[in-house]
Amino acid sequence: MRGVDDRSVVSRVVEILAAASSRAVASLADLTLLTGLPKPTVRRIAEQLVESGALTRTPWGYQVGTRLQRLGRPHASPEALAPVHDALTALHAQLGGIAWFTAHADRVDEQPELVVTDPAMRLQALREWPAPTSLSTIALTAIGQCVLSRRPELAERVARTRAGRGLRARLHASADRGAFVDDEAHTPGRRCVAVPLVHGGVLGVTVPADRSPLDALVRATLAAAARVDAAGPRDGVPLSDPHP
């Protein structure tokens, strides 16, 4: 439905957000058609909304961003997250680097809810969380491959691109080992392992490539995830967002 362009900045922002939320991914053309606003205006406002976190830019268009999605979302209690924090603390003590947990196994644009790392690296850990701005980010990162394993229609789409070469084989290998890995494929000098949890969410670790052999990283991360799974949900609220 076309909105009314009353020259109000607020009304234009609301129209664009409403259009973006009306579908899973909205292209610039979609937003222009749905709002009836000039395309340059839509592009400018949409990019400002991306910068603020209200929208997320993907290779296929815009999605409602994390700041809006968190409003009204049921969250696991601190008690429910306690086993996750304990596992991350132990994993970081064992391997160093950045131990992390995200409640979203279906998205790559959400910052992790929990991060255990050296204090000097915390800001770096959040800044370096992969943003879904390219197909290579989705296809090569551990969390991206985890998402693709749960969204076969998206995996097939990515696998047909140059960035997705070898993706199917990587996903099959990850399913066999129970963990998704990025062995310096996305970021030279960094290794990352991600393991989906039974009660929702993904637990992982990112370390310098010379810190530990990949097999040792996988074993340690699988063991940490198993401890969280064994603890189970404590308050009946899943660790993951029920509305991906």
TrEMBL record:
Listed InterPro entries: GAF-like_dom_sf, HTH_MetabolicPath_Reg, Tscrpt_reg_IclR_N, WH-like_DNA-bd_sf, WH_DNA-bd_sf
One Pfam family hit: HTH_IclR
One of the record's GO molecular function terms: DNA binding
Keyword field contains Transcription regulation: yes
Record keywords, A-Z: Transcription, Transcription regulation
Example GO BP: negative regulation of DNA-templated transcription
Domain HTH iclR-type as annotated: residue spans: 10-58
SUPFAM superfamilies linked: GAF domain-like (SSF55781), Winged helix' DNA-binding domain (SSF46785)
Protein name: HTH iclR-type domain-containing protein
Organism: Xylanimonas protaetiae
High-level lineage: Bacteria, Bacillati, Actinomycetota, Actinomycetes, Micrococcales
